[in-house]
Amino acid sequence: MGATYLVVGLGNIGAEYAHTRHNMGFMVLDAWAQASNVLFKTDRYGDVAEVPFKGRWFVLLKPSTYMNLSGKAVRYWMQTLNLPPENLIVISDDLNLPFGTLRMRANGSSGGHNGLENIAQCLETEQWARIRVGIGNEFTRGGQVDYVLGDLSEEEKAQVPALATRIIQGIKDMSTIGIQRAMNSVNTRPKTEKNGPEAPEM
Predict the structure, then answer these.
(1) Measured between alpha carbons, how far apart are the two ends of the chain, in Å?
(2) Could you tell me if residue 197 is inside a domain?
(3) Is 22 a catalytic residue?
(4) Residue 151 DSSP symbol
(5) Is residue 199 part of a domain?
(6) By C-alpha distance, which of 176, 166, 181 is closest to 2?
């Protein structure tokens, strides 16, 4: 059996959160499971699905702990699967990036994201890959919580499938050609922006 990777999509459980900006991670994993014709099963601390790819296994996890306690679920599954930190990939939303901008990193800080912060605390390391999905910051002062827990617009929802496809391909690339080369294809701005594609960040 080839390498196993834990791919965690961050979000909050419950129908009322399903289409909110904070649930970008869940949306990507739902798209991956659907495209791979696999179903999520409710398990310890979350919903889990397994997707094979070129001799590798991706275990998709949507934590059921709510965002601020995501680390509890990630730690449990990392220990259960006996995986090193470099075989973890976390997908989260990011207020600091324009909507649709993707940033893959081999490691890094939480950037103020409660879910990423809790994972770092529970694992006692930040040496794991993450993909941040820009959701923009179109809110007035004091409106951050309502914004991240607000539903995507219809125009934004329409862009999610293409974003999910890029993220999924980036994670597959990471498992085959390494994260540095995978970052080159993932870390570009959306083509809808007037300035055109941005140079990849290393």
Answers:
(1) 31
(2) no
(3) yes
(4) B
(5) no
(6) 176
Give per-residue pLDDT as tens, 22-67.
Answer: 999 999 999 999 999 999 999 999 999 999 999 999 999 999 998 9
Q: Is residue 202 part of a domain?
A: no
Alpha-carbon gap, residue 179 to 200, rounded angstroms: 13
CA dist., res. 110 & res. 114, Å (int): 7
- Six token digits for residue 73: 């679920």
Structure tokens at 55: 């001799």
Q: Which residues does 122 contact at the CB level (< 8 Å), separation at least 6?
A: 71, 72, 74, 75
Contact 121, 71 (CB under 8 A): yes
Domain presence at residue 150: yes
Q: How many CA atoms lie within 13 A of 122 on its CB side?
A: 18
Tokens 């289409």 belong to which residue? 19
Residue type, 16: E
Tokens of 14: 């419950």
Q: Which amino acid is at 169?
A: Q
Catalytic residue (choose from 7, 9, 12, 22): 22
Of 23, 102, 103, residue with least CA distance to 66:
23
Number of domains in the chain: 1
Q: What is the pTM of this model?
A: 0.90
